[in-house]
């Protein structure tokens, strides 16, 4: 039987909850059963979500409310939705208390970090030094933007190798890393590009969008396949 993958909604728009199709397709093509998880305000239903699904995918989306990681808004902050933020952080914390696999992408990785007590730099323009432009403007989202290097001994390196070119669609970056997390990939400007949770079978976050590169990159297909494999185990 295919493992049931809870795909947490990307966001809310005009009283609608949505998930981009690429996430659903990437799970399906990797032989998982996609189950879209809408925003709810019930702890009981969150527990039902966790009981129902074999693994969880947290998707990209808008910015996280800075108050939730101990900051106030700064220049460069984008759109936020505190109701969505609280739902996703609560769900992430509950999932991480289990051994069920979780794969988090872009905003999802930042939710992963905040749920573990980490913080976010609200805009790359607030950083000093020679910072890359991490918000690419390309004809297609599968186009690559910059190189990442993975950490030796990491689960991520075993999946995709020591270095790789990835796409990039974010203006916020990891500031302080959450408790128990390890940075397992960096860009050339030292931006954290991936996080793993120590002592967990599979809890991984990536800053790029592997679902958009699924058709063009064997490494991204391997990443999703590894996630689904752990969900089925």
Automatic annotation (TrEMBL):
Keywords tagged on the record: Hydrolase
Transmembrane regions: none
The protein, known as: Gamma-glutamyl-gamma-aminobutyrate hydrolase family protein
Taxonomic classification: Bacteria, Bacillati, Bacillota, Clostridia, Lachnospirales
Species of the source: Faecalicatena acetigenes
InterPro entries cross-referenced by the UniProt entry: Class_I_gatase-like, Peptidase_C26, PuuD-like
GO molecular function terms listed in the Swiss-Prot or TrEMBL record: hydrolase activity
């Amino acid at each position: 039987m295919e493992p049931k993958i809870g795909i947490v909604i990307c966001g809310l728009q005009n009283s609608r909850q949505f998930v981009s199709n690429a996430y659903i397709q990437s799970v399906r093509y990797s032989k998982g059963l996609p189950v879209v998880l809408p925003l709810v305000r019930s702890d009981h239903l969150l527990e039902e979500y966790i009981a129902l699904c074999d693994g969880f995918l947290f998707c990209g989306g808008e910015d996280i409310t800075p108050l939730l990681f101990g900051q106030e808004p700064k220049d460069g902050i984008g759109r936020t939705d505190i109701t969505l933020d609280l739902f996703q952080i609560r769900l992430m914390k509950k999932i991480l208390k289990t051994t069920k696999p979780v794969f988090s992408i872009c905003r999802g990785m930042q939710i992963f970090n905040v749920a573990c007590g980490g913080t976010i730099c609200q805009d790359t323009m607030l950083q000093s030094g020679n910072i890359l432009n991490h918000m690419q403007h390309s004809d297609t989202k599968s186009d690559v933007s910059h190189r990442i290097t993975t950490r030796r001994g990491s689960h991520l390196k075993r999946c995709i190798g020591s270095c790789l070119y990835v796409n990039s669609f974010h203006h916020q970056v990891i500031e302080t890393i959450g408790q128990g997390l390890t940075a397992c990939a960096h860009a050339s400007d030292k931006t954290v590009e991936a996080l793993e949770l120590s002592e967990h079978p599979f809890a991984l976050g990536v800053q790029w969008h592997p679902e958009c590169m699924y058709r063009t990159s064997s490494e991204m297909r391997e990443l999703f396949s590894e996630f689904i494999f752990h969900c089925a185990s």
